[in-house]
UniProtKB/TrEMBL annotation:
Its main location: Golgi. It is an enzyme of class 7 (translocase). It catalyses: ATP + H2O + phospholipidSide 1 = ADP + phosphate + phospholipidSide 2. Its cofactor is Mg(2+). Keywords: ATP-binding, Golgi apparatus, Lipid transport, Magnesium, Membrane, Metal-binding, Nucleotide-binding, Translocase, Transmembrane, Transmembrane helix, Transport. Residues 514-537 have a biased composition (Polar residues). It is a multi-pass membrane protein. This is Phospholipid-transporting ATPase. It comes from Acinonyx jubatus. NCBIfam families: ATPase-Plipid, ATPase_P-type. Belongs to the cation transport ATPase (P-type) (TC 3.A.3) family. Type IV subfamily.
Length: 1143
């Protein structure tokens, strides 16, 4: 069995591998390969699968011609070991375990079950369902403060500050004033709590707005309005009604079984699903036919009927249920499918819907596909957290060394704690303050950038993530494309019409086709027998004019488009007067369809003269250029499916009684159906290279006998209980033989502005782009080519549909042999591969230059983002514009929302909001780079500021017999971390290594950022060595040069320390800004002015002497001059990459 595939099998023999290769790649049919089992039969042959392990390395291709090789499975789990694992994981594991235990106790998930809902009789429903409301808040009034504090103190840095601050309440451990410890910590916590409170209040307001929407409830006596508690989910056009939840004000229905009020004989309506699946096209929904025969709405309460629905699930593309009416003889049973349902967050765009609420609240599809928002933490913050742990280890080691050298005299443990507090400045609390203020400054700069107007920073804690991205996950519809289709090309085999030659088609249509006229006359005279003779007669070459007529008519008939006329009287009219209130002029007509491609085709036929003027479920009316109305009766409709990749319609011409089967679809599906030709494949390739979406159109004439035979078999197949889908498909396929090829159409999906250069910019920056879309495979592949997501020189590997482990196993092996090709995979196949071969698929896909995932549900999009995070450890960014992208945006390390046609749901849920996709290039290349570089320099400099004073404290204590006495006290320590050095250090947020124009011109510079070289243990150790050198020079120099009083040591060392810090800021700066110079002068002026008020710490008479000045200058020169010399030599001998571009 497929489940027995070993992950560590023994290498198979070459003959067995050859046998498996033949079984997989041979066609199932007569011929040389017919004796081999088909690809799908391999699932039941465990021996075959045992001999075909997955190939996960290039080594398997060496020195062996066999296609299958035994290779060790890729290792993906990375474990932290030793002390780091113990220190890092201990605290987090303890807190996480406790919180998870409390959550499981408080929020036990209820088991989801199928349900039976009676029409108008809620008392018969035994099951209890969740409240019809949604909740996106992370906290409640009781968990807000504990939750926020936990999120803060789960980081080692904040926890350390808390312990140090609390220690100052113990008199024996008190080192300085309480405000020197609690003021910075309180400031950080206050800012965090206020920010979280504002975000939580905004979420509460959005939930309240949705949960307060009105719905209409149908009761026995009257129809009244009341306040709804949110979203119900599947609205189905079935009989039972009784919530249209919230269909009345907005039309965003809940999960309800629904029925259409019989305003139109069509018993159908259109809905928009853009907030659910990202598709802006309108979908046709059909009512349950049983309820449409009721004379009035009140009769819904007089019948005994119920809806049986499957249990709530994630899949938004399927639904199974039944509608049963018990009071009829015999009882009426109707199957319910996806075409009878309205999900929550969909909008009724046309018609009136009456539905039965089936799913509510948390059980709706939209809520189940929405992941809970998480608190995002930047990679830079995690790296700084690791560095603070290393500093803590150094702090403890230094304290132990001091106590050891002291000789463990007296209460040595008290001395140990005092040393820990004395050296606590090694981990400066101002690090969090400076970084948080820096993040706020980066956000302000982003929003004030005139090159990307309208950009909003909604999460101010992760701007540095924009500079560390490796994977960009993007939606297609509305993100890369405008979802506006334009008809571009019509190819008839021997002649091709483009945008500049459409007038020729109009000319052909204005002139009646002689062949068609003669055909019509012959058909009227001789009816069926001549059609039989005609079908068997030899083929006659048709004129170009007749072929144009047939092609345009086929395009105008084979679709699911409905014309809509706006009402003149507005809303509020009764049903019976709706028809009279409509204006049927051409200017008042719009088209609704399940696909924008369909609308583009019908709009094109209107532009050339053949207009669709009316359509319902049973007939279609066309108007010719001469004004004549042609009516066609729709006998059968075969909708498009992702499996068949084609759609068809059987129509009867009312004037001639001619029956014709029209079909259109993707070239891969139609090439084997149409008659032999020598141009279809070539022209499809040509159009695809132009970025056009192609459709092949064909027809077949049917006699009355042929159609009656088909209808009989088709009806019987639809009533089958077992294998209904297969039997129906087999009957339809009996018609799809030797169809006459009419034409090939090319439609362009307009891309967003500057999508191609933006994608090229991101690729050159080393960012791998994955397109995750809910659209069809052919559409996604076409857009990937036209947007240059996949370059013209790259091959595309389309992952075949797989349904089980065996097929996935074989398909992964086939994909393994491809090199440097883009991957296109469907959501269903992705689900199967992730179930059995998650790591293998991730490793292979990550090697691809581009990946396209089509037919993805919102949950799958989020899962892919988490898979990349877990498997690669790299930073991911998600870009989307619809409600279906929210889960992906929240799951990624960085989420970017685009305000577009699909609303603002993605924009509000994202960390960053932009108005156009092209703005992402500057957002990443310029602001992402600057934010990361600046925060890296700022964080390391703040740690250097704490390290240097801790080194001076260590030297001071070692000289004075290892006494645990502070070197600087009170205001000196507060001033050192604030007014004396804060402004120059914080001015590093204005620094930039390259100009924005250079960063955009050379996106390759972005690749260096992903390596994390600006902040690493190497750069950190360099700053540690600098701090030790400068701290030692400053302290020993002051001790060496002081004369008589100890207070002189304080004055000399502290003044030299301030000057050294100001000079080091100047050394760190790469591009000067005028505010930087102001900050340097201001800080120096503040220090000089404060000397007059520091009588408690300094000898004012001494600091005004020349001796003080030259001693301070000498010590400062020795501490800083060597570093300036080293920096100059490094830039000359080993310049960074960006200096080569700016020189």
């Amino acid at each position: 069995m497929a489940d027995q595939i070993p992950l560590y099998p023994v290498r198979s023999a070459a003959a067995a591998a050859h046998r498996k290769r033949a079984a997989y790649y041979s066609a199932a049919g007569p011929g040389s390969g017919a004796e081999w089992p088909s690809r799908y039969q391999l699932e039941d042959e465990s021996a075959h699968l045992d001999e075909m392990p997955l190939m996960m390395s290039e080594e398997g291709f060496e020195n062996d011609e066999s296609d299958y090789h035994t290779l060790p499975r890729a290792r993906t789990a990375r474990r932290r070991r030793g002390l780091e694992r113990f220190v890092c994981g201990g605290w987090k594991l303890l807190c996480t375990s406790c919180c998870d235990w409390l959550v499981n106790i408080c929020q036990r998930k209820r088991e989801l079950k199928a349900r039976t809902v009676w029409l108008g009789c809620p008392e018969k429903c035994e099951e209890k369902h969740p409240r019809n409301s949604i909740k996106n808040q992370k906290y409640n009034i009781f968990t807000f403060i504990p939750g926020v504090l936990y999120e803060q103190f789960k980081f080692f840095l904040n926890l350390y500050f808390l312990v140090v601050s609390c220690s100052q309440f113990v008199p024996a451990l008190k080192i300085g004033y309480l405000y020197t410890y609690w003021a910075p910590l309180g400031f950080v916590l206050a800012v965090t709590i206020m920010r979280e409170a504002i975000d939580e209040f905004r979420r509460f307001q959005r939930d309240k707005e949705v949960n307060s929407q009105l719905y209409s409830k149908l009761t026995v006596r009257e129809s009244k309005n009341s306040i709804g508690h949110g979203i119900s989910e599947d609205v189905r056009k079935s009989s039972g009604l009784f919530y249209c939840g919230p269909l009345a004000p907005r039309g965003s229905g809940g999960s309800q079984s629904w029925q259409k009020r019989p305003l139109h004989s069509a018993s159908s309506c259109f809905i928009r699903t853009d907030q659910l699946d990202g598709e802006t096209d309108w979908k046709l929904k059909v009512a349950v036919s049983c309820t449409q025969r009721l004379p009035a709405l009140g009769d819904l309460f007089s019948i005994s009927a119920y809806v049986y629905a499957q249990k709530p699930q994630l899949d938004i593309h399927s639904f199974e249920g039944t509608f049963t009416r018990e009071d009829s003889d015999p009882p009426i049973h109707e199957s319910l499918s996806i075409e009878n349902t309205l999900w929550a967050n969909t909008i009724v765009a046309s018609g009136t819907v009456i539905g039965v609420v089936i799913y509510t609240g948390k059980e709706t599809r939209s809520v189940m596909n929405t992941s809970n928002p998480k608190n995002k933490v930047g990679l830079l913050d995690l790296e700084l957290n690791q560095l603070t742990k290393a500093l803590f280890v150094a702090l403890v080691a230094l304290s132990v060394v001091m106590v050891t050298l002291q000789g463990f005299v007296g209460p040595w443990y008290r001395s140990l704690f005092r040393f820990l507090l004395l050296f606590s400045y090694i981990i400066p609390i101002s690090l969090r303050v400076n970084l948080d203020m820096g993040k706020a400054a980066y956000g302000w700069m982003i929003m004030k950038d005139e090159s990307i107007p309208g950009t909003v920073v909604r999460t101010s804690t992760i701007p540095e993530e924009l500079g560390r991205l490796v994977y960009l996950l993007t939606d297609k519809t509305g993100t890369l494309t405008q979802n506006e289709m334009v008809f571009k090309r019509l190819h008839l085999g021997t002649v091709s019409y483009g945008a500049d030659t459409m007038d020729e088609i109009q000319g052909h249509l204005r002139n009646p086709c002689p062949q068609m006229q003669s055909q019509a006359g012959g058909n009227n005279a001789s009816s069926t027998p001549p059609r039989k003779a005609q079908s068997s007669a030899p083929k006659v070459r048709k004129s170009v004019s007749s072929r144009v007529h047939e092609a345009v008519k086929a395009i105008a008939l084979c679709h699911n488009v409905s014309p809509v006329y706006e009402s003149r009287a507005g809303v509020g009219g009764e049903a019976e007067y709706a028809e009279a209130d409509q204006d049927f002029s051409d200017g008042n007509r719009t088209y609704q369809a399940a696909s924008p491609d369909e609308v583009a085709l019908v709009q094109w036929t209107e532009s050339v003269g053949l207009t669709l003027v009316s359509r319902d479920l049973g007939s279609v009316q066309l108007r010719t250029p001469s004004g004549q109305i042609q009516t066609y009766c729709i006998l059968q409709m075969f909708p498009f499916t992702s499996e068949s990749k084609r759609m068809g319609v059987i129509v009867r011409d009312e004037s001639t009684a001619e029956i014709t089967f029209y079909m259109k679809g993707a070239d891969v599906a139609m090439s084997s159906i149409v008659q032999y030709n020598d141009w279809l494949e070539e022209e499809c390739g040509n159009m695809a290279r132009e970025g056009l979406r192609t459709l092949v159109v064909a027809k077949r004439a049917l006699t009355e006998e042929q159609y009656q035979d088909f209808e009989s078999r088709y009806s019987q197949a639809k009533l089958s209980i077992h294998d209904r889908a297969l039997k129906v498909a087999a009957v339809v396929e009996s018609l799809e033989r030797q169809m006459e090829l009419l034409c090939l159409t090319g439609v362009e999906d307009r891309l967003q502005a500057d999508v191609r250069p933006t994608l090229e910019l991101l690729r050159n920056a080393g960012i791998k782009i994955w397109m995750l879309t809910g659209d069809k495979l052919e559409t996604a592949t076409c857009i990937a080519k036209s947007s240059h997501l996949v370059s013209r020189t790259q091959d595309i590997h389309i992952f075949r549909p797989v349904t089980n482990r065996g097929e996935a196993h074989l398909e992964l092996n086939a994909f393994r042999r491809k090199h440097d090709c883009a991957l296109v995979i469907s959501g269903d196949s992705l689900e199967v591969c992730l179930k059995y071969y998650e790591h293998e698929l991730a490793e292979l896909a990550c090697q691809c230059p581009a990946v396209v995932c089509c037919r993805c549900s919102p949950t799958q999009k989020a899962r892919i983002a988490k898979l990349l995070q877990h498997h690669t450890g790299k930073r991911t960014c998600a870009v989307g514009d619809g409600g279906n992208d929210v889960s992906m945006i929240q799951a990624a390390d960085c989420g970017i929302g685009i305000e577009g046609k699909e609303g603002r749901q993605a924009s509000l849920a994202a960390d960053f909001s932009v108005t156009q996709f092209r703005h992402i290039g500057r957002l990443l290349m310029v602001h992402g780079r600057s934010s990361y570089k600046r925060s890296a320099a700022l964080g390391q400099f703040v740690m250097h500021r704490g390290l240097i004073i801790s080194t001076m404290q260590a030297v001071f204590s070692s000289v004075f017999y290892f006494a645990s006495v502070p070197l600087y006290q009170g205001f000196l320590m507060v001033g050192y971390a604030t007014i004396y050095t804060m402004f120059p250090v914080f001015s590093l947020v204005l620094d930039q290594d390259v100009k924005p124009e250079t960063a955009m011109l050379y996106p390759e510079l972005y690749k260096d950022l992903t390596k994390g070289r600006s902040l690493s243990f190497k750069t950190f150790l360099v700053w540690v060595l600098i701090s030790i050198y400068q701290g030692g020079i400053l302290m020993y120099g002051a001790l060496l040069l002081f004369e008589s009083e100890f207070v002189h040591v304080l004055a000399i060392s502290f003044t030299a320390l301030i000057l050294t810090e100001l000079l080091m800021v100047a050394l760190t700066i790469r591009t000067w800004h005028w505010l930087m110079a102001v900050a340097e002068v201001l800080s120096l002026g503040c220090y000089v002015a404060s000397l007059a008020f520091l009588n408690e710490y300094f000898d004012v008479a001494f600091i005004t002497t020349v001796t003080f000045v030259w001693k301070v200058s000498a010590i400062t020169m020795v501490s800083c001059l060597p570093l300036y010399v080293l920096k100059y030599l490094k830039r000359k001998l080993s310049p960074p990459s960006y200096t080569k571009l700016t020189s």
